[in-house]
Design brief:
3-stranded antiparallel β-sheet; Immunoglobulin-like; alpha+beta; 2 domains; 17% helix
């Protein structure tokens, strides 16, 4: 019985304190908390790829910038026509001598230890009127 009366008394005291100090509580200015939308969390591509035309025999340079709120240690994987390019694992992709065989769609996947995002695909084509060469090697470099 005593415990029940104590609970009722404490509940009444809490209600009374809340009513008595409500004007002071209402005047408090609490700092605003910014809730980041999902697009601002994790990894973000800050400089995207762009479609382009390249002359035969000239180098192709594709570059992406990405950031993560969790780490600076990002991993990259470049794709050509939806297939991974072996060894192309840095923020820059270079084809030393562009030819018709390198025409197509390019994208890059960026990942950290918990998340991965894929860039939109961009089209890279051979400039019109120029003969294509069958040479060319792709590589990626880390900055």
């Amino acid at each position: 019985m005593f415990e029940k009366l104590l609970k009722i008394y404490l509940l009444g005291a809490i209600v009374w304190l809340g009513w008595k100090y409500q004007p002071q509580l209402m005047r408090l200015r609490l700092p605003a908390v910014k809730i980041m939308p999902s697009s601002e969390r994790g990894i973000a591509i800050t400089k995207a790829l762009r479609s382009q035309s390249v002359a035969a025999g000239q180098p192709l340079f594709l570059y992406v910038e990405a950031s993560s709120v969790r780490t600076k240690n990002l991993k990259y994987q470049w794709y050509f026509n939806n297939a991974p390019i072996p060894g192309a694992e840095g923020p820059m992709l270079t084809v030393m001598s562009f030819s018709r065989k390198w025409e197509g769609l390019y994208s890059v996947a960026v990942r950290d230890s918990t998340e991965s995002i894929q860039s939109p695909q961009v089209r890279v084509s051979l400039e019109r009127g120029l003969a294509a060469q069958d040479s060319g090697r792709a590589s990626a470099s880390a900055r």
